[in-house]
Amino acid sequence: MKKHWILLTAVALLLIGTVVVATHGNEISIGNFHFDYFSSGPYALGVFAAGNFSIGIFSAGIFSVGIFSIGIFNVGLYALGIFVLAWKKKLPFFFDKDKKQ
Question: What pTM does this model have?
Answer without folding.
Answer: 0.59
